Amino acid sequence: MKYAYFKGKIVPFEQATISIMTHAFNYGTGVFEGVRGYYNTEQEQMYILKLKEHYQRLLLSSKALHIKVDETLSDLIAITIELVRKNGYKKDVYIRPLAYKSEEKIGLGLHGIEDDVAIYLAPFGNYLDVSAGIKVCISKYRRISEHSMPAGAKLTGTYFNSSLAKAEAIGKGYVEAITLSHKGNVAEGSGENIFMVKNGKLITPPLSDDILPGITRQVIMGLAKKELGIVTLQKSFKPAALYKADELFFCGTGAQISPIIQVEKRKIGNGKIGPITAKLQEIYFKAVRGEIPKYRKWLTPV
Ligand code: PMP
Description:
The chain is α+β, with helices and mostly antiparallel strands.
């Protein structure tokens, strides 16, 4: 990590530091994004995936927390391209933009507190296993409800809830947790959306189950329709339905497409990656590295 964007400038990473009195550090009053850059070694080309969509969501999240972002959507995109270029990594990266209450101030509230934007990036491989399939538990922690925090926004504070679920999974010997909504419907993973394959159909929880509106989720629905002729049903389901699924997978910027082969003590399908998941993975992993011309529009080359 060589350079970061901090207080309106690209600076050496070491200079991008905040005070312990920072509002966001004390109260979790920040919003953020996770964006992947895929490096294609053959083409010697870095591709940033869905950059515009991530910044559109960051700006929406900022509104939910009354964070004023001075940079426009096109500024943020241009700054990120410049930052990725300056860092010069020739490998896959993870880009982390943040907008946060930066004032050094004791006291709650969201209005009249200074805000800032920070962006950094780091080399990053697979967050979850994408080849063998993962084993997950169902968390005892419910996903934060719209009645507690804006569930559709990506708020730093919300991730305490996600971290509890993830820690619970690790503590019990699983790699990830499925969280339920306050109504007891399947919501998502700790940091990824979930899809179920049942009788050749794809089913994913609707936004009304307090999920984060995932960008990858949207991509998967598009690919399923265009490439496999499968329309995704967005409908609520209870955890019991998971055990009857033919295939299950998580998706997200970090998780990419991560097959789930076991929930609690029960195998999903035959305990191996299913054909629809495998097909979606094959297309996705080619597309994000710029190997499918019609999906280049997802990518920002640097
Ligand atoms: N849900 C949560 C809670 C997440 O943190 C993420 C990752 N941003 C996702 C879903 C997947 O979203 P996306 O596909 O936009 O990365």
